[in-house]
Structure formats: C-alpha cells, structure tokens
Amino acid sequence: MTQTANTSTSAGKQMLSEQVYAHLRDAIMRGDYGPGDALKPQDLAKGQGVSLAVVREALVRVVGEGLADRLPNRGFAVPAFSDRRWQEIAEARRTIEPVVLRMSVGRGDVDWEARVRAAHHRLARTPAYVPEEGEYYSGAWSEAHRLFHRTLLEGCGNPVLLETFDRMWTASELARRWSAHRVSDRDGAREHRLLEETALARDADAAAAVLARHLTLTAAGLTDGTSQEPVEEA
Fold this sequence. Notes:
Blueprint: H1 2-30, E1 38-39, H2 41-48, H3 52-64, E2 69-71, E3 75-77, H4 84-107, H5 110-125, H6 139-154, H7 159-182, H8 188-200, H9 204-220
Antiparallel strand pairs: 1-3, 2-3
C-alpha cells in the first residue's frame, strides 16, 4: 500500500511539474516575460496553485532548454537579448547550415523538391501573427517555419547533421522571436522565397549565400547595430 501511494504521489507531482513547465515555456515564448525578467518561484507557485518543489523542477527544465538562467544567489530569470549565447548559436548555424544546404541541393531528388515547394507554400499561407497568441509569431507559423528550413536540409540524407540542426533550432527559438519583434520591417517572406527559388534552381552557391544572410539578419536583430541590408537577389 505504501509503495503504491508513493508511486501515485510521484506521478501526480510529475504531472503538475509538466503542466507548470508547459505554462512557463509558453508564457516566455509568447512574450509574457521579457528579456531579463525575473522568474520568481514563489509567485509562480502561488499563481499555479502548486508547491515550490514543483515549480523549481519546472524551472530546471526551462533552464535546460536555454529559455531561462539560474543566477547565483538571485534565483531565475529570462536571458537578456544581448546574451552572448545567441550570437554563438547564430555563428554555429551560419557555419553548419549553409554547408548542409549545399549537400542537400546536390543530393536531393524530385521528392525532396516537391517537399520543399509544399513546405514553402504552407509557410507562405500561414499567418505569422495571431492576436490571441501574444506579440510574437503564432505557434502554427513557428512550426511551418521550422519545417520549411528542415525540409531544405533533408536532401543531404545525413541524419546526424539533421539532428544537429534540430538541436540548434530549438536553442535559437527564443532569440528568433525576439529578433522578429525588434525588426518588424524585415521582409522574411522574401528571404524564404529566395531560399526556395535558389535551392530548387540547384544553385548551391546562391542558396548557401541566401541562407547565411538570412541567419545573419536574425542575429543582427538582437544587437544595437542591427543590419538592415537587403538580401541580394540570386
């Protein structure tokens, strides 16, 4: 009986922790908490009607995803948009993804071409912003955006490289939302169209250059010296 009760209690705590984690992650992604905002365990516990232990478990998961920092003697907080990590992730993506795209352009078959065209069509037709989802772009657009970029790279045929892309994409999601919010006049739709056109034209050099600039502009949106140079037609 005791073992069964303990198991039930543990499962209940895990379920509560999952709920608090999902709530907190969504709130950060929506912009309810801005860059540098404190995440106070006591306030979160009171607001969600759960224990501090449950909240701290959820916060540890959010920290593990790079959506929050654990500060010595100061609790938890959302990272600042000036945090060096965002530029390091961007540098890693600019180093790796254009190379993988070159491979994809060279190796991708007709089925890959069809998937790229379909993924771009879905992205272009999905509303980027939905009022009820806050000031950042919508969940549906976010997923369409991820699928488009991943589909572009899938022609490489290398699952290890695609897993690397997946990890970097998740790590950069918050910075991507902040950048889009800070640089509202950026023509992302045009950049995505150029990516599709150059990739399907089998122009590896142009596609890699467009992708590198696309990633550069996202990173630049988080610095004071935001670059607004246009993406060159390829």
